[in-house]
Design goal:
- The complex is a heterodimer of chains A (274) and B (298).
- Chain A is mostly helical.
- Chain A has helices at 4-16, 19-50, 59-74, 76-86, 91-95, 99-102, 109-143, 149-175, 179-205, 213-217, 219-222, 243-269.
- Chain A has one domain.
- The relative contact order of chain A is 0.14.
- Chain B is an alpha/beta fold.
- Chain B is elongated.
- Classes of the chains: A mainly alpha (274), B alpha/beta (298).
- The A-B interface holds A 1, 3, 6-7, 10-11, 13-15, 17-18, 96-101, 103-108, 270, 272-274 and B 13, 46, 49-53, 70-72, 74-75, 77, 79, 81-90, 94-95, 98-99, 101-104, 130, 143, 146, 156.
């Protein structure tokens, strides 16, 4: 019988009551508050800056710049959530010896894994959801209109990105038996190796390595304004990213997610608590 | 009837052999697995509970091979391995409820069962506190309650009294003893305390360097006397207080006699039969056996 729901509820309880959750919530609220402050304080002058690029910037472009700035921060929230909730997900079972309680249960490892993954996913979505709520309300107050369709498209992409980055952290956690190793690996890969590789490839080979997760994740901002700090070789456009780019980024994120999820699951199935 | 069978179980870590060709069968009652540190007791317990996989051999639980059908086989097993740890942000009650749900305990009896086990293990007061605030002893008690949820046929306990205060030790031993006396229940507990093994269990297995060195039923109502004769005895007399005789070499016989019988009765019987006794030693029992086996292997 499937026991994913009670497993999910149990792990979810343990997640949302954890110090990591409150730490993430504090970061979330801090970043959101700063962006609210920024939006109300500097937004009136955005058109001045934009007019240096585009003569008489249309209101629609100003609104897209607003969302672009918010999404610039939004991209990193799931990464932090995934590191907090995903990196210790499996390694902690071994390091903290909770595996001795969990592995002998008459439940398949897939269900244990899926229950925990789902809980970590929902908690991460919750963290990003709070940020998005701030963004939505601020937008309404500033522009007196509802968010455009692009906002909902970016939410959809965000949900895929959370799946993808969380899978990567679960895979890292399944490889190691120590939490610290799992934390460091994800942080180094995402914030050091991938960006460095992206810059090196851009500079020396003249193309943007779209297959890197950091590059693909930039689509969260590019849906508003086709500029990414990871793809400067091809110039930039003030228009939203084309459908082709959105689809390609989506596929890259899905691939990372599926491959990492499957690898993590296989490793977890074979995991021994020595 | 509960039944656990270990068939040629092996576990290697590189060139290090942790468990070496262990074959044993466990039915109803309590079996103690004794052994020094590093003997392979915990490794064996982890193999039985699917925490680690054996390098060879198979575990059969109530007719089900663990590696073939772990989910089904583990339905019959409750376990407490090493010092238990729980997710720190859930309460003791939530931890027990979770295990009860995983073990398919019906909702209507779950609360009652949890309250009963909490009272038997002495954790009622702490049941609604988060397990992250528990002391080692409290976690041990909670672990024991968790192992007993749904009354599994086979209970695997790895040093269950570790970290408990004297009162906790007595209560835990009582609880395990009464559980093992229930119909068709099997308790396998690992310990390095001989007194614990003899007090709780009716069978003892001594494990050393990964293999079984001794496996015997404990009979507290009997004692063993080793008699060395000057010459090989042709006929050894029988009497009602002699429960068994085991010939050890040409001139030595190990007598098992009822605990109430005086040693002098055996001496009189042998002397009257015309046998000349060279040495007469009462074995201190399991302690002697344990020390001689561990000494031999070291």
């Amino acid at each position: 019988m499937l026991k994913i729901v009670p497993l999910f509820l149990y792990y979810f309880k343990n997640y949302y009551r954890s110090r990591a959750f409150y730490m993430m919530l504090a970061i979330d609220l801090l970043v959101s508050s700063l962006l609210v402050y920024f939006s109300f304080t500097y937004l009136s002058s955005i058109d001045k800056y934009l007019s240096r690029i585009v003569a008489n910037p249309p209101p629609e472009l100003i609104r897209r710049v607003f969302d672009y700035v918010w999404n610039f921060a939004l991209e990193y929230l799931p990464v932090l959530s995934a590191v907090f909730f995903g990196s210790p997900a499996i390694s902690s079972e071994i390091e903290n010896r909770t595996a001795y309680q969990i592995f002998p249960l008459p439940v398949g490892r897939f269900q244990l894994f899926a229950g925990k993954f789902l809980a970590a996913y929902v908690v991460s979505v919750l963290i990003s959801g709070i940020f998005l709520l701030f963004q939505w309300i601020t937008f309404l107050f500033v522009f007196h209109i509802l968010q455009p369709d692009l906002f909902y498209l970016s939410i959809l992409l965000l949900l895929v990105f959370i799946f993808s980055i969380l899978s990567v952290t679960f895979m890292s956690s399944a490889i190691f038996n120590k939490n610290l190793n799992a934390y460091i690996t994800v942080l180094v890969i995402y914030f050091l190796i991938f960006p460095s590789a992206s810059y090196v490839i851009n500079i020396f080979y003249g193309y943007t390595p779209y297959y890197l997760l950091t590059v693909a994740a930039a689509i969260l901002q590019q849906v508003y304004f086709n500029f990414s700090v990871f793809s400067f070789s091809g110039g930039f456009s003030i228009n939203p990213a084309p459908v082709q780019l959105i689809l390609r980024s989506l596929w890259v994120m899905i691939l990372y997610g599926v491959i990492s999820f499957t690898t993590a699951l296989i490793l977890f199935e074979r995991k021994e608590a020595i | 009837m509960s039944h656990l069978k270990l068939e040629n179980i092996k576990k290697h870590y590189g060139s290090k052999v942790a468990v070496d060709s262990v074959t044993a069968s466990f039915g109803s009652g309590c079996t103690a697995i004794l052994g020094p540190n590093g003997a392979g007791k915990t490794t064996l317990m982890k193999i039985i509970t699917h925490i680690i996989n054996p390098s060879g051999g198979r575990v059969v639980i109530n007719g089900l091979t663990l590696s073939d059908n772990p989910q089904k086989a583990l339905e019959n097993i409750g376990s407490l391995i090493e010092q238990p740890e729980f997710y720190p942000y859930v309460t003791g009650r939530e931890a027990l409820e979770f295990i009860a749900v995983m073990r398919d305990v019906p909702r209507d009896i779950m609360k009652e069962e949890i309250n009963y086990l909490a009272s038997r293990t002495g954790i009622v007061k702490f049941l609604d506190s988060r397990t992250g605030t528990y002391s080692k002893g409290m976690k041990q008690r909670l672990g024991l309650a968790a192992a007993m949820i749904s009354e599994p046929d086979i209970l695997i306990l790895d040093e269950p009294t570790f970290g408990l205060d004297p009162r906790g030790i007595i209560e835990t031993r009582d609880l395990i003893r009464s559980y093992s006396h229930k119909k068709n229940k099997s308790v396998i507990l690992s310990t390095h305390l001989i007194s614990e093994a003899t007090e709780i269990c009716d069978r003892v297995v001594i494990l050393d360097q990964g293999s079984i060195k001794y496996d015997s039923i404990l009979r507290n109502s009997t004692k063993k006397i080793r008699v060395v004769f000057e010459t090989k005895p042709e006929i050894v007399p029988n009497a009602e207080f002699i429960l068994s005789k085991e010939v050890k070499g040409t001139k030595t016989i190990l007598f098992e006699i009822a605990n109430g019988a005086q040693n002098s009765r055996l001496v009189d019987l042998l002397v009257n039969a015309g046998l000349k006794i060279k040495d007469f030693t009462e074995s201190k029992g399991l302690e002697d056996i344990y020390l001689s086996l561990i000494h031999e292997s070291s």
